[in-house]
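thread: overnight batch results

M.L. [08:02]
morning all. the overnight job finished for the chain we discussed friday. pasting input first so we're all looking at the same thing
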Amino acid sequence: MAENQEKKSEQIKEFGQIDLKNNRENNKISLLTIIGEIEGHDCLPATTKTTKYEHVLPKLAEMEDNQDTEGLLLLLNTVGGDVESGLAIAEMIASIRKPTVSLVLGGSHSIGVPLAVSTDYSFIVPSGTMVIHPVRMNGTVIGAQPTYDYFKQMQDRILKFISSHSKAKEERLEKLMMNTGILTKDLGTILVGKEAVEEGLIDEVGGISQAFDKLHSLIEKCKKA
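M.L. [08:03]
and the structure it wrote out:
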């Protein structure tokens, strides 16, 4: 018992992951958190709170292949981060055949937006925020047409993913992305709570209890099917 408890504590501390089994419905749920900045191929400073994609991808693969796992609850409070890594995680979540639910706590900005919409159903707390902005160019950029074409292609991939996994239209998303009147010295749009629902990005305003209720109902429906 003590060994299992220690293993659970280590999972939470190191990876922000835990398996939940002792619930009233007896459903076996995997809890996964995306916290801070999504770290990609480059290591971020030790003082930066990060979610490492090399930790998340194996967990998602294990969850899909584990017959004991019946659903996934995804908790998000992220400023975004590495675009390719974030999109890889989002694609992985979207391809899972088991019921999945996401909950935006605090914020799910930038590449966090595709992650929030990648599940079967999504929630955001009333004070939660989502920031939609163009792909930023960091580091050394070669000022040539192929470079700009690459960033435009990446931006289009993000827009297509979001629109195909939510009720938001691609044209509307691009307009929100290029908005010049909200973010000081930057392009983009901040959506708070119900605004994200009104724009079709998120399904519902709610908290952890609503997220659990929805996931349990999706699992039960899956069992009956």
